[in-house]
Amino acid sequence: MPRHSAASPIYTALARLANFNSGRRVLLASRKTSSSSARSSAKTRPFLCLALFRILVVVTAVFLFPPAIMSSSSSSSSAAAASVPFQSPRKVVKKVLSLSQSEGQGATVRRSIGGHEVRNLDPFLLLDEFSVSKPAGFPDHPHRGFETVTYMLDVRIPACSASSISCSVPFCLHHVDIARKGVFTHQDFSGHTGTIRTGDVQWMTAGRGIVHSEMPAADGVQKGLQLWINLASKDKMIEPRYQELESKDISQAEKDGVAVRIIAGEAFGVRSPVYTQTPTMYMDFTMQPGSQLHQPIPEGWNSFVYIIEGEGVFGKEGAAPASAHHCLVLGAGDGLSVWNRSGAPLRFALAAGQPLNEPVVQQGPFVMNSRAQIQQAMEDYYYGRNGFEKASQWSSA
After folding, report:
1. Do the Cβ atoms of 93 and 330 come closer than 8 Å?
2. pLDDT tens track for 166-211
3. Are 220 and 155 spatial neighbours (Cβ–Cβ below 8 Å)?
4. Which of 35, 136, 215, 261 has the lowest tally of Cβ within 10 angstroms?
């Protein structure tokens, strides 16, 4: 080991604190210790570097390649739980395209529930998407034994078509779609009258009997949905009543690109004020592109979806998309998942109800539990009794 001269700064500093000899001994001892430590450090440095390298590799793998560390089973189950938060998600068990047919007086409907392919879906008897223009409509007619729910929709049409403008310019303002408001008037033999507009709901419990009319009150096509819900045998002869909500009074909620109008039931923690004689949920969802929905549905209830506009994936992520005017009957489970992977909004109605598990006998506008009860309803209407006392003297304006 080389020696330092007495003139070096280190020795000068040590000499000031003590004598030169003692300082020299301290310095030499210090150098021996340093040399020993250096030799020891040199021996352990490769092992330390290797350990640090291994730690770095592990940390990098954890942050950059988590699937290589997690088991494939736990990864897939976690992903499934995140995408579909139901123990038993409902899947589509039947898909029906609703075709146009004539109904009432010159009206056109697309019937899904109540048609040939889905005769009924307890407690649902019928779902029509109706399109009506003056003077067509649904003039005076009776009901007994169930409820009708009328929900008015807007009508999207090209402005140039609405104003009868002949235009060949591809991108003129007249080609911009507009939403035209629907208007329907209602009258019944008890003196009840009302007008329902786009977004309004009329929930009518016919009970023991109603005679009424439903007619368009504005020019152009009026569109809406009408849902028939069966009543239990104990409720079929209750007094008629109405629940009518304007659009502004319907419960609404919005979350993560999904908006819902809650006609009956609950969604996103918001509940409708409508009382349902037969336990029912009925909702109008609009989903923006890229959004997804997970809506709980009570187990044991029957349910279906009717697509109003757009295209979406229903039930499971790998399912084929379904488009407008399709009715999707859902299987058993505790909730429905929907994905909008298209580039346009998706709008659909979701309905679910507690099955009554009772016989259903239907003759036109009468729905009872036996053929004898249907015969009785027809006689009561004809002779004006048991709820139809005002029928023979009444006609709508």
Report:
1. yes
2. 444 444 444 444 455 779 999 999 999 999 999 999 999 999 999 9
3. yes
4. 35
230-273 residue pLDDT tens: 999 999 999 999 999 999 999 999 999 999 999 999 999 999 99
Whether the Cβ atoms of residue 143 and residue 201 lie closer than 8 Å to each other = no
Q: What is the CATH number of the domain that holds 292?
A: 2.60.120.10
Domain residues for the domain of 48 are: 13-64
pTM, two decimals, is: 0.76
Q: Which two tokens stand for residue 206?
A: 């016919």
Q: How far apart are CA 287 and CA 294, in angstroms?
A: 12
Token output for 244: 């009518």
Task: Report whether 354 contacts 301 (CB < 8 A).
Answer: yes
Beta bridge partners of 95: 328
* CB 185 within 8 Å of CB 153: no
Question: Tokens for 214?
Answer: 């439903």
Question: Are 245 and 378 found together in one domain?
Answer: yes
Task: Give the contacts of 197 (CB within 8 A, at least 6 positions apart).
Answer: 152, 181, 182, 183, 184, 246, 247
How far apart, in whole angstroms, are the C-alpha atoms of residue 107 and residue 136?
A: 6
First-last CA distance in the chain: 122
Better-scored residue on pLDDT, 55 or 216: 216
Q: Are 36 and 142 in a shared domain? A: no
Q: Is residue 295 part of a domain?
A: yes
How many residues appear in the chain? 397
Q: How many domains does the chain have?
A: 2
Return the structure tokens found at 132: 């009506």
Contact (Cβ atoms closer than 8 angstroms) between residue 292 and residue 265 = no
Q: Is the pLDDT of residue 148 over 70?
A: yes
The radius of gyration computed from the CA coordinates of the chain, to the nearest angstrom, equals: 38
Please tell me the predicted confidence (pLDDT) of residue 15: 42
Ranges of beta strands (E only) in 133-176 are: 138-143, 146-153, 155-158
Say which residues have a Cβ less than 8 Å from residue 270's Cβ, sequence separation at least 6.
251, 252, 253, 262
281 SS3 class: strand
| Whole-angstrom distance, CA of residue 122 vs CA of residue 219 | 36
- The amino acid sitting at 202 is Q
